[in-house]
Amino acid sequence: MARLTAGITTSHVPAIGAAIDLGKTQEPYWKPLFDGYEFSKKWMTENMPDVVFLVYNDHASAFDLSNIPTFAIGCGESYESTDEGWGPRPIPTVKGAPELAWHIRQSVIQDDFDLTTVSEMTVDHGFTVPLSLLFGQPAEWPCLVIPFAVNVIVYPPPSGRRCYELGKSIRAAIESFDADLNVQIWGTGGMSHQLQGPRAGLINTDFDMKYFDDLINNPDKLADMPHIDYQREAGSEGIELVMWLIMRGAMDEKVREIHRHYHVPASSTAVGHLILENG
What we know:
This protein is of the alpha/beta class. 34% of the residues lie in helices and 22% in strands. The chain has helices at residues 14-21, 31-35, 38-46, 98-110, 125-135, 160-175, 205-217, 219-223, 227-234, 242-249, and strands spanning 3-10, 51-56, 71-74, 78-81, 94-95, 116-118, 122-123, 144-150, 182-188, 255-263, 271-278.
C-alpha cells in the first residue's frame, strides 16, 4: 500500500521564483533565505518521494471570479507553468499522478469533503516556487506531483478545522491506495504578511514562531483558530497558513521536527519552512 512518510511546509513568494530564474540566489538580499533550504535539498535527495501531494493556492491564474472552488484536485497527466505577467517560469513540465489523484478524489468525497476535479490547468508560483526551493533547477522534476488548490483568496476561505480534518481524510485515502508508493504532503503559503492597505508590509515574528510550535505540538488548538485571528495577527495574506493544517492533519499526532527555517523579509513576507516526519 502507499504510505505517507513526511510533511513539508514552505512559503511560496513569487519573487523567490524570479530570484532563482534570474540567478540571484547568492546576492546579499537573497542568500540568507536560500541558505536555509540547503539542508532541505540534501534531505530531499536522501528521502525522495514517488509522489508529492502539494497543497497551494492559485492566484487568479487557473481560477478567477467566474470559478472559485474551495478545494480542487488536479487529476491530469501534466501541468505547465502559467504566465503571471512576466512569462511562464523556465521550469520543467510537472508530471501528475492521475491514478492516485482519482483514488484520493473518490475517497475524500466519500468522506463528505466536496472536491472540484480539474483535468487541465496551468500552475502559478504558489505551486512552482515550492518545487524549486526543494528540488532546485533540474532538467525534469524527480517525482510526480498532485496539485491540490485551496481558496484563500475570496472570502470565506475554509476553516482551519475543516482543513485539519481534510488532511486526515487525505492520509486515509493515500494509505488505502494499492501501490507501493512513498508519498509526501506539502502545505504551502504564509507566513505573516499583508500586501495592501495601511498594514502593508506587516510582519509578526512572535505569531509566526508560536504558529511553528503549535503546528508541531498542538495542531488541534490551531484548527480552532478563527479567520479573524489570522487577519489580526498575521495580516490579510496570513490566512494561507490554513493550508499548513491540511499537511499537519495528514501526519501522526506526534511528529519529529527535522528542519526549521525562518527568514524576514522576502518581498514583504515572512518566509517559513518545516520538514516533519511521523513518530
